[in-house]
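Notes from hallway chat w/ T.B., transcribed later so I don't forget. T.B. wanted the structure written out for a chain they're using in a teaching module, and asked if we could keep both sequence and structure tokens in one place. Agreed to drop them here.
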Amino acid sequence: MGVVIAALLPVFLLIVLGLMLKHSLMRLDTQWHGLERLTYYVLFPALLVQTLVKADLSKVPVAGVGGALFLAALAMSLLCLALRPLLARLSIDGPAFSSIFQGATRWQTYVALGVSSSLYGATGLALASVAMVAIIPMVNVFSVAVLASCASSGKRSFGEIAASVLRNPLIWACAIGLLLNVLHVPLPKLWHDVADALAQASLAIGLLVTGAGLHFEGLWRAGTAATVGVVLKLVVMPALALALAVWFGLSGPSLVIVAVASAVPTSPSAYVLARQMGGDAPLLAQIITLQTALAAITMPVLIALVS
């Protein structure tokens, strides 16, 4: 447990530092909005591409880790859709449902990569890169589709939904990084120097932005919708992923990284997407804040249990 906490502590301290900076040195929303866009469109895609380019996928169980997480995210998506009629009877409307869906299915990649690197170094990053390819494209497609059908003021056509997905820089970064890795494309040293610098900056800045985006207003008055979003992500999702991982025969670092990838809170980029597409952004902010606070407790316990 001590090793696990030591690996998690720097990650959560950076999140807390971001929260403190938001209320002291950098109070303007425009400052964080600029950092958010820089991270989302430049730093984080550079990290994804570079991690996938450098990952030795021949030494990690790609099918097991990727399959377990892909199927877990798919199962969670289908479970959320199956719960929609019940949630509607609880007066949870379309925009609120879209926030529950994003809260239950999306993941905080900054935290996952930071913890994976702290626990297992290059091997952890290679395993986490497999998790990125398995989770990011699918959950982004599903999130955009659910928002378009449940939250947007007007129904979007298939072409508009497809265009929104294709504009997502994270999907492109995963595709490019994986393609370069599979084809063994040689890249110049200058590329690696620049990409490594951007990648190193992305984790720290991304975690600071995560902390700055936490909202504690009304946190202790969490309603049914927020509670459902938290339970699905921090309890049901890890249970699904770990059951599938054991079924695939995973153990050791591979099993731990599956636990990490499934137990992290929801990505703050989900909040941005909710604002852009008419979702219930305040509800999603509450879900993300609750998940982040509780994950500081649930993640060490879960990782220690499977280590």
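Follow-up for T.B.: The chain has a mean pLDDT of 86. Might be a good example for the class.
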